[in-house]
Amino acid sequence: MSLKGQRTTTTSMDWDQFKSLISKLERDGEYKYCLLIATGVFTGLRISDLLQLRFSQFENTDILTVQEQKTGKTRRIKINPDLKTIIERIKGRLVVVNTDQYIFLNRYGTKPIDKSWVNVELKRIFKKYGIELEGNVSSHMFRKTLGNRVLKLNNYSNESIVLLMELFGHSSVALTKRYLGIREREILDVYDSLRL
């Protein structure tokens, strides 16, 4: 939690860091967090929506349908084949019998893990694997990692920013740029453009 007036910024992971991290988490049996990070990055869902997901929502479909808690809007998300493979593989390792159970169960197996606990665990995981990021480590990182990957793959085009604005449910391109730290980079680049 931040103090009043304190500026906090969550960063994104580099795509190679993301791939390496989920591989290591799966290897080390940290299945819940492997799935959480992979699902968060591949879907771009907010943490409140991620924690409500059930295994059954990924069965026999290529589309994930979620009613967003924050906006009340229904979102349809194409399930990435790599994500689907990870979910199936880990579901088998966890020997999930009831696919209607929440994917991200608390230690008592009664309800989803708490949002604040996720952020505590993410900090532990990043420390454990020696991953250093420029900003804060939190669940916002999932959406920002997706956004920055889309931008990079599309050469930071205006079209990709508009698509991300719609994907994130932002009201303006300016908000999306600020969310992903693009505006700040553009402003800092102005100083570099000054030449004698």
UniProtKB/TrEMBL annotation:
Q: Where are the transmembrane segments?
A: none
Instruction: Quote the SUPFAM superfamilies the UniProt record gives.
Output: DNA breaking-rejoining enzymes
Q: Which UniProt keywords apply?
A: DNA recombination
Domain of life, per lineage: Bacteria
Q: Does the keyword Chaperone apply?
A: no
Q: What GO molecular-function term can you cite, just one? A: DNA binding
Q: Which InterPro entries match?
A: DNA_brk_join_enz, Integrase-like_cat_sf, Integrase_catalytic, Tyrosine_recombinase_XerCD
Biological process terms from the Gene Ontology for this record are: DNA integration; DNA recombination
Where is each Tyr recombinase domain found? 8-192
Q: Which PANTHER family match?
A: INTEGRASE_RECOMBINASE YOEC-RELATED, PHAGE INTEGRASE-RELATED
What is the protein name given in its UniProt record? Integrase
